From TrEMBL:
Membrane-spanning residues: 55-73, 80-99, 105-126
Keywords tagged on the record: Membrane, Transmembrane, Transmembrane helix
Full protein name: Putative membrane protein
InterPro entries, per the entry: DUF1304 (IPR009732)
Organism of provenance: Demequina lutea
Top-level lineage group: Bacteria
PANTHER family recorded: BLL0914 PROTEIN
Any Pfam family matching the protein: DUF1304
Amino acid sequence: MLIAALVIAALAAVLHVYIFAMESLWWTTPRVRATFGLSEADAQTTRSLALNQGFYNLFLAIVTAAGIVAWLVGSPAVGAALVIAGVGSMLAAAIVLIASDRTKASAAVKQGALPLLALIALAIAAL
């Protein structure tokens, strides 16, 4: 179950790298504007906010990846702490998103499903 948990956590990290790219690199492109329901003017106005938010997602992915690596090279306590901090923060961000704006429920589920599954799998592995 541990391997499954780490694979799911890795997938969550990859997803958050993609979110980083959308928010920090591609925010004003037509495809990303359509994904987030933004006009060109709104995308330009919120560009610096999205850049910052994207880097938060990248840092969560890095923490999670570092935890996976630490776990695999023989530091399970450090690895567990980092993976739980990373995916736990991803899940918390998804909860904040849905709590702050119910119209973003679909995005929150996409953002939070893998972290939630990773935490559940880690809990089962710890039994």
